[in-house]
Structures are given as C-alpha cells and as structure tokens.
Specification:
Chain A: It is found in: Cell membrane. The complex is a heterodimer of chains A (324) and B (505). Chain A has 15 helices and 4 strands. Chain A is mainly α. Chain B has 3 domains: 239 residues, P-loop containing nucleotide triphosphate hydrolases (Rossmann fold), CATH 3.40.50.300; 137 residues, Rossmann fold (3-Layer(aba) Sandwich); 78 residues, no CATH class. The chains are: A mainly alpha (324), B alpha/beta (505).
C-alpha cells in the first residue's frame, strides 16, 4: 500500500496539464529572442515587464480570494479608481499622506463590506451585485475628483511618489509590494484553515456549511480582502503615474479576471491559485511586450489577452473532460 | 354495467423478469380506485402501459369506454380520454396558473395570433372553480400551497382540449401533503369522480386509500392479488394483502435496551413536514426513523443538525442548540452525514484529505502553517480504517466510486469522535460491500459511546443497525418498534398504515 501511495507524488509531471503555461512562456521567450534579439534580449525588457505588471498583479492577487470562494468581484476596477481619486484629492487638499493612504484602504474595506451585504444578506448573485456596485463606484470616483484630472507634481509630492517610484536593485518598489502580497496570498490559500474554507465554499457551499464553515463570514472576508488589496493597488498607481482620473481603474478589471481564470488552468488545474495567476500574468505580459517591440500596434495588448484566455481555458476544459 | 377502463391480461417482461403477470382490472365511471402494492409490484409498469411508455406483451388488451388503446403511443392514450398527473406534477414554478394550464395545449388566440388573455384567464379560473379551488390564476404556481399545485396539475390534465376526459390517473397524489391539505385534495378527487370520470390512483399512503377510494386493487410481484370495495376492509387485512403474509401479532410493549446518559433530546421539534417530534437518544444507542416520502423523515436531519431553522428544541448534552447554526452543532459534538452526498457533502474537485479535514482544518497547524505531512498521515489512517479504495489522500473525491465517497464523508465525521452522529440515508446508492462496512462503522461508533440517529427508507438497514425505530406518518411519531417487534415487515406496515389518531373509516 505504502509504495503505491508515494508514486503519484514523486513523479515529476512533464505533462501539459499543470505546467502548460511555463512551456508556452518559454516558447514565447525563445520566439522573440530569435525574432528580435536586439530589442527583446535586454535587461530593460525584463524590468519593463515586471514594473508594468506590478499593479495589475496586485489587483489580480486580491481578486483570487473571492473567486476561490466562488464569488465574482467586479468592483475591483471601481475600487482602484476611487482609491486613486481619494488619494490624490486628500494630498492636494493637504490632508496628509496618512489620511490619503489609510482613508483609501478604509474605502476599499467599506466597498467589500457593502458587497458582502448585498451578496450574503440580500442574496443577490455576486456577478449582478458587484456589477451594480461597480457602477456606483464610477460615480463616486467622479464625485471625488470633481470630474477632472488631478495632477501630483514631482516637486510638491516627491516623498509620496517615491512610495511607488523608488527603486531597489533597479526595480520599482511596486514590484516588491506585489511580491509580498503574492507570498501572503499563497500562504493564506495553501497553508491556513482560511484557504481551506475559501476553496470549500467555492467548491460546494452547501457541503461547506454542513461541515461547519460559516459561509457568509467567509464570503465577507473574501470581499473585504479584494477591496482592501484593490485600494492598495490604487494608492500605488497614484504614486506611479502621478495623476488621477475617475476611470483609471477600469482598465484593471478585465486583465485581473483573465489572469485569475487563466491561472486556474495552471499548477492546480480547476482551482484558482497564486502561482498559476503569476504565470498567467507574466506569460501575457511577455507576449504583449514582445509583439510591441516587434512593431505591433498598441491594440495588440487587448487582442492577445483575449485570445490567450479563450484558447487556454478551452484547452483546459478539454483536458479536464478527457481526464474524467 | 359500463366500464370506463378495462384492462385484460396485461403482462410485461423486462429482460426475462416478469414485471406484470396477466393482470386484469375494471374501473367504472365515477369510481375512485386505489392501486397499492410494495415497490416493484408492477403498479408503475401498469400505469406506464396505460400512458403509452411501455409496449405490453401480446395478448394484453386495454379499452377505455369501449375504445381500444393502441400501445406505446401516448397520443392514443390521450385521444381515448386517459389523463395523467405524475407525482412531480410537471408544473413550471415561475409561470402563473394561466400559463401552466395553457402550456402544451396552446393559448386561445385571435386572428392575429395575439393571446386572448381575458378569455384565457376566465377559462383557467373556471377550470379550477370546477375542482373547488378559488385560486388567483395570475399567481406563479411556485407560490401556491402544495394541494393547490396538485389542483392546477389535475385541472390541466382534465381540461385537455379535444377528446373528452374519461379517466384520471394519479401517482401518489397526497404523498407530499400535510394533513389538512390532503383533505382538500380528497374532496377534489371526489368532485372529479362525481362528474362521471373514473379515477385510478397509485398510493403508499393508507389513509389516502381509506379516505378517498371506493375500491382498491392490490398487486404483488406483478400479479393481481385482490380487488374489493374499501368498505368493510380493515387496515390489517390490507397490509396482509400487500405484504403477502399474516403479520405476527406484535408485542405492544416492546423493550428498550439500557444505555448511557442522554446525549440528544428533541422536544416538540417542528418544521416543514415535521409536526412536533419528541425523541431522546442515549450514549451508545442507535435510534432509527422510518417513514414514507412526505412523512417528514427527509426533514429530520436538517432540523436536528441546524441545516434549517426549527420549532421546538434540540438539546445536545444538556444545552439547547441555536437555530440554523451547523457550526455550533458541530462544536458541541454533533455530526451529520447528509443524504445526497454529491449535493450536500462532497467537495468533488478537492482531495480526500481536504474533504476529511474540512471540519477542523487547523488541527495540524503549527507556527502559522498547516503541516501537510501529519495531516496526510492522519487522513490515511482513516481511509484505511474505513477501507476506502484507493486509500490515497491526494485523490480527488470525483475519482472515487459512490460507496467510497460515502465512506470518506463518514470518515470526516468519525474522526471528530462525535457525541451524536446523525446519518441520513447513509447507504443510498452504495454497493453491498460498502454498505456492510458502513453498518459496521455505525456499530463501532455506538460502541464507543456516540448516540446515533439513522434516517432511512431502507428498512432492512434500520433493522440491521438500530436498537429501536420511530415511525413517522404525516409529520408525527406514531409508533416505536424495538426488540422482537423490530422487523422489516413491521416497519413497512407501520409506515404505510393509517394515522392511529384518525377514526376508522
């Protein structure tokens, strides 16, 4: 019995089911290295990919939590916008960095609580509930920014801007924030009871409840987490770009969902997970920056992201079906 | 005398197995006939022949009001006036009564194919009034009382446009109805019969038979046993016809084995179909609950465990449990192996390890990290103890057979060493070997001092594992069997018997 038991763990799986993303990523790197070696094989390309994706990565990492619990959170884009506008508004109105940062995070938490009120208490489907809430957030962001662009100049707000722009080992701080959050989420999902509860609620809420999991509370914590993380991403984004508009966060919604769902086809197929999400983000980013360096127009980003998501998930569904 | 329905020498063989063996019955217009028998006696086969689902063996003849039925042709069944209402009623819950009546037969329309709602509503209202039901026909059917839904289904069957209705065939019409609603339905069926339509209904509920039917036909092992008027028939006689042998005069005293302290007390537990259940379970005792569908048996587990809110009290180890809080029930030492494990107990895409430890995932946590190695070792012990195959903690639940999945769910709870173990249909859809293993685990849990409550439709299982069995009928405990009285036949007889509180008809 015991020898049989050890076998499936120890075997190194070269198959495409769990690590296909890594293979595709490697293939992309080789492809661009051969195609445009002068442009692609540069340290600056690596730096660029990492720093460009840091904020999108943070948003996606927050989104993993509610999706693991089987809930959509479509407010993350709106939370980023609100957080950006509030941070900039607080700074230009001289409320200080502490108010700007703490206030933004609290706003993110408040949105998470409202989401869970709608989804858990009012029993509105999470897709619809958070869709409605995201529309409200667009309005809130516009109100805060008085519907105009707020600019934070380098002279006036240097210390705050350094929060994101400061560099360590040649990489902006945002890359390190993303790394720390990734580690934290990985620990939560893989090594704490909270992770088990999240996956159980996402897998079968009835069974989870009858096993003593407080599904309402788990869902609430999931929404609060994604809200707080999106708000943090908003603060980092404000410091990165130094301007605030009420629609700046919207561009982060779809990439985050793409990364999380594409990530669910990796490492632990069928289950959203941190490593898979990271692979998905950098696979997509590598493809996009390679194409751009090769002279492709800017709309290629959206085209590539969309195609990659559909193709990858279709293949994963096919493998899963064949396996069962 | 004219006959509405005449069945001659009906036979049906399924792969060498005789399901129906030269059965002949006649039903007169305006007569209400009950068709009773144990599961597998041939009732459903006969109904399905009438409905045109099965082709009977050559030699079978069916006529309705003199017109011959051409077999395995549902259209012919309808054309000669047979009308069916199945147990699930076949209504669309979110559509209103008008729409439900019009589905299948088409709406009344004008020249431009616009629906004439006014006329349609009037027709619907009239059809229901004829059955004695004054229902707002614009209500979604899902919002109606159960007996009202049955009325809508009957109205739909009866109002079929085209051939006149000669015979109404009902499958377990009051199976899911609480007492007062069942009585409304008796009156409805009586009205239908008074209009000259013959009624044939399949039933497991003996009160339904005695309250509603003029006559009864008993089938056993595919054969016709007896057809006779209900008047003058006693319940015991009917049970003997159904079971096929004389029941031993059972000892009304019974006896209860002595056990440990009281671990679970149900005081006037109510909710859904259950109406005031009192029950005490001692440590080391295995108590069963039997009852046909609709008796409330299927609700008991959720009410006890806190899956639903309940009336009355559930007292666990001296403390009253709060409403609808499974987590607190578990904390205080209760465990539930629910019915329908796919829907209620399994995390299909997750590992056996995660399925088993979901009740307390933190058990192997140290320094803020869940230690996978001790967790695996812990789980593997349980997989081997219950002989789960394969006993691989990292397999997903979906990779196991039904019986092994059920063992995993049971392992989840035995690992908690519960004070009270509630099992709802513990061997549903499980193979014979796994079933024996599960029964052995129940014995062991009781031997270790757990109070066990088993809810089951498998009467042999109840006899096998229980010290005593409570019989539920229409939401009330009506009998308790133990000792020599605890036999398969006695349970069956008691579950389908009439409410002892009701006067004999």
């Amino acid at each position: 019995m015991s020898e049989v038991q050890a076998a499936p763990r120890r075997r190194i799986n070269l198959g495409f089911d769990r690590f296909s993303g890594l293979y595709v990523w490697a293939a992309l790197i080789v492809l661009f290295a051969l195609w445009i070696p002068d442009l692609f094989l540069q340290v600056s390309t690596l730096k660029q990919v990492l720093s460009f994706q840091a904020i999108a990565t943070i948003v996606a990492l927050g989104l993993i939590i509610p999706v693991a619990a089987g809930a959509f959170d479509l407010t993350i884009g709106g939370v980023v916008s609100v957080s950006v506008c509030f941070t900039a508004w607080a700074l230009v109105n001289h409320h200080g960095v502490v108010v700007a940062v703490v206030g933004s995070i609290l706003l993110g938490i408040a949105v998470g609580l409202l989401n869970s009120l709608v989804v858990v208490k009012f029993k509105v489907d999470s897709f619809i509930g958070t869709l409605g809430m995201s529309s409200i957030l667009i309005a809130v962001a516009a109100m805060i920014s008085s519907q105009s662009q707020i600019v934070l100049s380098t002279e006036g707000y240097g210390p705050f801007l350094d929060f994101a722009r400061g560099e360590f080992l040649g990489l902006p701080y945002t890359v390190y924030y993303a790394a720390v959050i990734a580690l934290f989420m990985w620990w939560i999902l893989e090594y704490t009871p909270g992770g088990r509860y999240l996956y159980a609620v996402g897998g079968n809420p009835v069974a989870a409840r009858l096993s003593g999991v407080r599904i309402g509370r788990v869902t609430m914590i999931a929404f609060v987490t994604s809200g707080a993380v999106a708000a943090f991403a908003g603060i980092a984004l404000t410091a990165t770009i130094g301007t605030a508009t009420s629609i700046v966060g919207e561009g982060y919604l779809l990439p985050a969902f793409s990364a999380v769902f594409l990530g669910a086809t990796q490492i632990r197929p069928g289950r959203v997970n941190v490593l898979g999400t990271l692979i998905a983000i950098f696979l997509l980013a590598t493809g996009v920056s390679g194409l751009q360096l090769a002279g492709a127009p800017s709309y290629v980003t959206d085209l590539f992201n969309g195609l990659a998501l559909i193709i990858a998930v279709s293949l994963a569904v096919r493998t899963a079906r064949r396996r069962s | 005398m004219t006959t509405a329905l005449s069945v001659r020498e009906a036979s049906k063989i399924f792969g060498g197995q005789v399901a129906l063996d030269h059965v002949s019955i006649d039903v007169a217009p305006g007569e209400v006939r009950a068709l009773v028998g144990q599961n597998g006696c041939g009732k459903s086969t006969l109904i399905k022949i009438l409905a045109g689902f099965h082709e009977p063996e050559p030699g079978t003849e069916v006529t309705v009001d003199g017109q011959e039925l051409s077999f395995s042709d549902p259209a012919s069944s309808e054309a000669i006036g047979l009308r069916f209402v199945h147990q699930d009623l076949g209504l669309v819950g979110n559509l209103d009564v008008v729409d439900n009546l019009a589905i299948g037969q088409g709406y009344i329309t004008g020249i431009t194919k616009t629906i004439r709602w006014k006329q349609e509503r009037a027709a619907a209202h009239e059809a229901l009034m004829a059955l004695g039901y004054d229902i707002n026909v614009r209500m979604p059917v899902g919002g109606l009382a159960m007996s009202e839904r049955t009325a809508v289904a009957i109205a739909r069957a009866m109002s079929t446009r085209g051939a006149p209705s000669k015979m109404l065939i009902l499958d377990e019409p009051t199976a899911n109805l609480p007492g007062p609603e069942a009585e409304r339905l008796y009156a409805l069926v009586r009205r239908v019969a008074d209009s000259g339509v013959a009624v044939l209904f399949v039933s497991h509920h003996f009160d339904e038979v005695f309250e509603m039917a003029d006559s009864v036909t008993v089938l056993r092992d595919g054969k016709h046993v007896i057809t006779r008027p209900v008047e003058g028939l006693t319940e015991d006689e009917l049970i003997e016809h159904v079971v096929g042998r004389k029941l031993d005069e059972y000892d009304k005293e019974g006896h209860v084995r002595a056990h440990g302290d009281v671990v679970l007390e149900l005081k006037d537990l109510s909710g859904a179909a259950v109406q005031g259940l009192d029950l005490t379970i001692h440590a080391g005792e295995v108590v069963g609950v039997a009852g046909i569908t609709g008796s409330g048996r299927e609700e008991v587990a959720a009410l006890v465990f806190g899956g639903h809110g309940h009336g009355g009290e559930v007292v666990l180890g001296g403390d009253v449990l709060p409403q609808a809080r499974p987590d607190i029930s578990i904390e205080r030492g209760m465990a539930l192996v629910p019915a329908e494990r796919h829907a209620n107990a399994s995390l299909m895409a997750q590992s056996l390890r995660e399925n088993i430890t979901i009740v307390d995932p933190g058990r192997h946590m140290s320094l803020g990290i869940l230690r996978r190695r001790p967790e695996k070792a812990d789980v593997t012990v349980w997989l081997e103890r219950l002989d789960v195959r394969p006993s691989q903690s990292e397999f997903t639940m979906a990779q196991l057979s039904g019986g092994n999945q059920q063992k995993v769910v049971i392992a989840r709870w035995l690992r908690q060493e519960p004070k009270v173990l509630v099992l709802d249909e513990p061997t549903q859809g499980v193979d014979v070997g796994a079933k024996a293993d599960i029964h052995r685990m129940v014995d062991e849990a009781a031997a270790q001092g757990a109070g066990v409550l088993v809810l089951s439709t498998d009467h042999e299982e109840l006899v096998r594992v229980c010290d005593r069995v409570i019989i539920l009928r229409r939401g009330k405990a009506v009998d308790e069997l133990s000792g020599p009285r605890l036999t398969n036949d006695n349970i069956t007889a008691a579950t389908i018997g009439r409410d002892s509180s009701e006067p004999a008809a």
